[in-house]
Amino acid sequence: MSAERVLRVLVAEDGAADRLLLAQIVRRQGHEVFTAQDGEQAVALFAEWRPQLVLLDALMPVMDGFEAARRIKTLAGETLVPIIFLTSLNEHDALVRCLEAGGDDFMAKPYSAVILGAKIRAMDRLRRLHATVLEQRDQIARHHHHLLNEQRVAKAVFDKVAHSGCLRASNIRYLQSPYALFNGDLLLAAYAPSGDMHVLLGDFTGHGLPAAVGTMPLAEVFYGMTAKGHGVAETLREMNAKLKHILPVDMFCCALMLNLSYQRGTVEVWNGGMPDGYRLSASGEVLSTLESRHLPLGILSPERFDDSTEVFALALGERLLLLSDGVVDTCDDQERLFGVQRLRQVLAANRDPARLLQELMQALERFGGRPRDDISLCDVCMVEPQWQAPMPMPDAEGARSSPLHWSSHFELRGESLKRFNPVPYLVQLLQEIHGLRPSGGLLHTVLSELYANALEHGVLGLDSRLKRDAQGFADYYRERGQRLARQDDGFVRIDLDVEPMAGGGRLKIEVRDSGAGFDVARVLSGQRQGQAFSGRGLSLVRSLSQGAEWLEGGRCARVVFCW
Amino acid sequence: MAVESDFSQDEKKLTITVKGRFDFGRHQEFRNAYERQPIRPNSVVVDLKDATYLDSSALGMLLLLRDHEGGEDACISVINTSPDVRKILAISNFEKLFDIS
Amino acid sequence: MADMHIDPKILSDLQEVMEEGYLQLLETFLEDSERRLSQLHGARSAEELGLAAHSFKGSSGNMGAVGLAELCRQLEERVRQPSLYGIEDLINRIDLEYLEVQRFYCAERARISAG
User: Fold this and answer.
1) What is the span of the domain harbouring residue C68?
2) Which ipTM value was assigned to this complex?
3) CATH code where residue C78 lies
4) C-contacting residues of A 444-473, CB under 8 Å?
5) Is A382 helix (H, G, I), strand (E, B) or coil?
6) How many CB atoms lie within 10 A of CB A155?
7) Which of A25, A227, A303, C56 fits a 20 to 30 Å CA distance from A174?
8) Does residue A389 fall inside a structural domain?
């Protein structure tokens, strides 16, 4: 008899001879036997020895078998201790009483060793099965708690990712279902040093932890590059390359990225795989849609990645509404989709922009069906450029010594002009100068302006008067893209010269281009007549530096910073 | 069977037909349809005429297929798409990777 | 069957099962039975009588005293009827039957002790 089949058996029977006989039968079957002669003794013995099986005579003095059975079952608790009633009672009512008291089986007299053996084996199988079920139940419960705890920790980490940026800016409203981030929905916003705001709404394939794992590296690239002043195209290229590298082939991230420039009143858009975004007027009408024109991130190799963006003018008060596909894909209990029609109805019915997102959520709730866990909504409004304190740039380790007397030049030609923006790298370089560190944001803005002017007006010959209105904007940027693709013999040259001065130092920046130059005086004076867009850049540069002048017929801009 | 495959010897073309919901549940069957072919096909056709639904895991499966068949050099068409299915493929701009009709 | 006092098959099974404990079983049964008979005679209500008969039926059945067990069963049933007419007669027959049984088991006991 194998070890686990040896049972502790309690025999409670008031007839002495019967008790002897029964105990012997059970012992001969290999089990350990305890005997009791009444119900009370049976309960006491059970409490002390915790047998695995009980044979109980129904009619006993002091306490009968029914009461003893009830008490034993109570003592046993969750564990199954089979009770076999010993009875020759064959009235129906008596047998019912046995079952009600907790009996699992009956055994009649005269006792048959064979039948008893079969019953004991059967009851033991039942007992072991029950014990296994309980054990597995407990295991599952423990595992479940473990999982919940892991998810809680992961969620805390992921939530930090989402809140590192500027989602709390006053012109952004957003709503996400509580586990949206956990399901791969990513909503990020951060200021660039120039004061522009980058916004990214992303949606990773899959659900739960596997989907959310990609959000961290992506967010890191987004924040890092935005803070350093990289543009949308470069940031997207980097994010795509990173995801292509780390994600398995069948995983990708749909994304909609925006660059809002308050200075210029424009928005630059890239949409790869996300549902349409909406450009809304101040009163809530749909002016245009931001459609998906690209493959999602993480699919194409870096050489094939398309980083082209579209630029629109966005007037004060106009808004952009971004949503993840959980919104339109919400189903009711008849498997009907919420769909774009209903979404547009909610937009049309909205009167108070501040309540749009709530109204959308309410409409989704009313529509019924299971509330989804991957809903993200974001509403960004174009506002006046509030000049924020220049962003402290992500700092390199504070070095005691910094280079103070040097000069350098960069000349970008041909292919480089098409794809490469040198400004972030130059700013990084200038950050090495201690005294210039607090001015990182200013440097970035000035260099960006000068470079943009040199490239667009100088090399490409674009006329900024085009940027008069919304349509003009679209035309301008389309033209910019075309001319940039066509050009191959222009250049932009940047000279940096740093020298120490009493108590500090001086930085001189010269930006030259291969273009035809422009009438500086006219442009600068035109600014005072309230020309919306074009001359703004030049006076901005002037206001931010300690000296700005345009030489060589407008082909060379020279700017000085002192500290 | 929700996923069936057919290999045409003379054209060296593999046709994979997906019926019903093309979602994560079809993952293993779909992979088996192209991974178990002894001869590398010159082209692959994914026939969705009886497919009722397509989700992002199906898009992932198409990417896996493309990767298996040579990535950039793969020649894969997705045919008989219903308007709903086409819409999903369009929003992800998958026609840049696959020939869709 | 009504004339058979002890079922030899049951008895031999009993001996096999009990092994060295057979003797003790015989003695215990004889002792126990005395008590049961007193219970039977001393019963003051139909219910008590019924219970005593039931118990005695059980133990004698186990021991192979089939005649005795059958009589006890009859008594148990009889007691359930409203009229207790003829009960005395049944009890007497039980007494007589037990005497036979007792004689047999004493002989068994002697046989075992000697052998």
Assistant:
1) 20-114
2) 0.91
3) 1.20.120.160
4) none
5) coil
6) 16
7) A227
8) no
